[in-house]
Structures are given as structure tokens and as C-alpha cells.
Write the C-alpha cells for this entry.
Amino acid sequence: MSDAQVVTRFAPSPTGFLHIGGARTALFNWLYARGRGGKFLLRIEDTDRARSTPEATEAILRGLDWLGLDHDGEVISQFERADRHAEVAHELLAKGAAYKCFSTQEEIESFREGARAEGRSTLFVSPWRDADAATHPDAPYVVRLKTPTEGQTVIEDEVQGTVTIRNDQLDDMVLLRSDGTPVYMLAVVVDDHDMGVTHVIRGDDHLNNAARQMGIYQAMGWPLPVYAHIPLIHGPDGKKLSKRHGALGADEYQKMGYPAAGMRNYLARLGWSHGDDEFFTDAQAKDWFNLDGIGKAPARFDLKKLENLCGQHIAVADDAALLHEIEAYLEATGADKLPIEKHDGLERAMYCLKERAKTFPELIDKAHFILTETPIVPNEKAAKNLDPVSRGILAALTPQLQDASWTKDELEAVLNRFAEDQGTKFGKLAGPLRAALAGRAVTPSVFDMMLVLGRDESLARLDRAAVEKEG
């Protein structure tokens, strides 16, 4: 297998949004394939027609798109391949590796009740397993796989290690229902084989399925994939992640304003590690990711760690790419699109907005001085810094700035000189300047705001604040 191209897959059921656990499974498959020049395929397991919806498929695709997990080739629909799945079941019948079972539901239940009463295993043993075809009635039947009755099935799992299941604990699994439709367990194996999947990386809730699915591989003479069953994600309290722990869907995290790069980094660290590395890039993750770095114990979801990593990714992000993602965030939340002048201002300001912002709402809040409408209306806290004395100071300051060359050093020099002339320190000027330029008491640095706004807009805002009447 070392010479073969690595092929992984993500195979969600379209019954809802892209769950955060599913997002991590997709990420692990994507990293493993991308880091080895392999293929990452996407299959929608839509055989449950009652619960599968096109809207859920769309939600899953949107979630993967937001996370930047691109897949190779077309999206495969499992339902559309039903004829192929049935074809394999009939091939197994022809080989004698499967059989027609005519037992009714009532007969199966009666068998189980008798077994319970006698303290025997309730695994159904079909009387049709070795029946002569000549004795088959003209009645509905299911097709069952002939599972070995002795010995054991051994799963060599890259995460869980060697897992052994006694064959007498496995029943003869149904492959085709009485209406001729294939079951999910058969469909998964046929699809993985036909798609050339070499590595099945999925949640450890599928571990028992692997033992049963291996029976189909072996009966068909197909090579087994490499299995890696990864632990589930728990909440901070150690219980299985659920709605009570907060957001569950990837789309909810986009709407909360987390950057995709930070989310990828955090999800990669959730159950997998590379030494003590916490913060890393996509390139590093692809290079480092391997199956032996995945732990056996469930990972705990920690919102504080997620926020911390997201802040680090915002700080180092390319400005244009960050702006593009902020616009996608605004669209996802139904907010208005940025007018072109606000867009340009935000891009100019990005250098002074990125530090210490953990989410896009925090960054946008810092950008209030650009995004707000003019004339500036100061909030209650900022208005306290615009008393008559402060307005007088601003009126005296504006002419000093008229002829300043608009660089940070020059602006610092002018403001410090002015403060000295007023017999005060620059810190005393900062409050009124913030109120005049942004209408807020907490803002990026006064110099950064003036540089981003430019000479004309800065002076216009200072002028207006200087002459406006109180109240």
C-alpha cells in the first residue's frame, strides 16, 4: 500500500448541518490525503430517504467550503448507486457467500424471545443459512451475508490498536431488504471499494461496523482499507458534545465570527498532537499530520482555546484574505454588504485592527471609527471627554495639524508638542481625540485612526467635535 496513492473520504449523512465532530473527521481525512499528494473524496450517504434532505446536503457543502476543505472529483450520492450495491449482493449470493432468508419478523422475534427465556444469545440464527434452493418458498426474502460462525475477526486499527471480535458475536448481516433495496452497511463497503478508498478515517462509533464490513471485503476478495477510528468529541464537562455545550454546527461558528484558519488549527489539535505545538499553519498541519498522533481518549472542546488560536490566526493573516473572509462572515449573518469606501477604509486599517481581536465581531467593533456614519455621535462614555474645556483644546489643536506631514512620527511630534504647550501630557488629549475621531472611549491608537482616516477626514471630525454644543 505504500506505493499506492492515498485516497480518503468524508461520508456524511445529509440529515442536518455539518456537526463539529463531522467537520473534524473531514479535516483529518483532508490533511492525511493532502499531506501525501493523495485524493480527498466526498460522498453523501443519502440512503435514508425519510431523513435525507437537499437542504442538509447544501448545509454540509457550505460548511466544508467555509472550512476550506476542498474535495477531488464529483460529490458521490450513495442513493444513486443502489443498483451497483444490489449487484454486489447478487454476486455474493452466486458465490455462496450470502443466502436468501425467508424468515418473517414474527419468526425472528419468536426466536429471540425463546433465546432470552433460555439464557442463550439472541443473535438470530437463520434456518435458511444452508437450506437447499429447491426448498425455497415463493415468498419475500432478505439477502444475508454468511458470517463465519467460528474464530474471530481482527481489526488492525491505526488508532485503537488490535481489536478482536469473536465471530459468534456477529450475526448474518442483512445485505438486501425484502424490497430489494441495499442496506447502508453494504453500500459503504461497495462505495469505498469502487472509489478506491485506501484509508477509512472515521469516528470510533463505527468500530463495530468495521468488523461486519470486513466480512463483505473478504467475501468479495477485495483488499481491506487501513482503518483509523478516532475518538468522539466531548464537552468541557467530559460528556458527549451536545446542544447544551453550545454551538454544534460548523456554520454556527462562521456566524459567530471565527476565522476558518483558526478553526482548522483548533480542530486539528482536538484529539491529535504534534509535540507541544499549539499554533500552526495549514502547510505545517499537512506536513505533520499522521495517524499515530491521534489519541485514544475523547477530546474536550474548549472555547477559550479556540478563541486564543483564532486571535493568533487573525493577527498573522493576509489583510486582503482577511477582508474577504469578513465579507463572507457578514453575508452569512445577513448583515449589509460593506460600501466600497468602507471596504477600502477597512483594508487600510487592517494592520491596526488585527492585534488582539479573537473574532470578526471584535475586529469590526475596533473598526467602528471607519464603519460608523458621520457626523460622529459619541456614546455616553466618550461624550464625557468632550466637555467645554476639551472642545476648546480640540479647537486650538486643529490649526497645529493643518500643515503637519501625515506620518505617524510627525503626528506624534505635533501632539506631544501641543500637550506640552498646554501644560499637560498627551494622555490627557487622548480621551477627547478618541471621542472626536470615533465617538468611543476605547479605540485603536489615535495616531493609527488619523493615518487611516487621512488628513481631511481627521480634521473635519476634530472641527465638528470642537464646535458642537453640549447636549
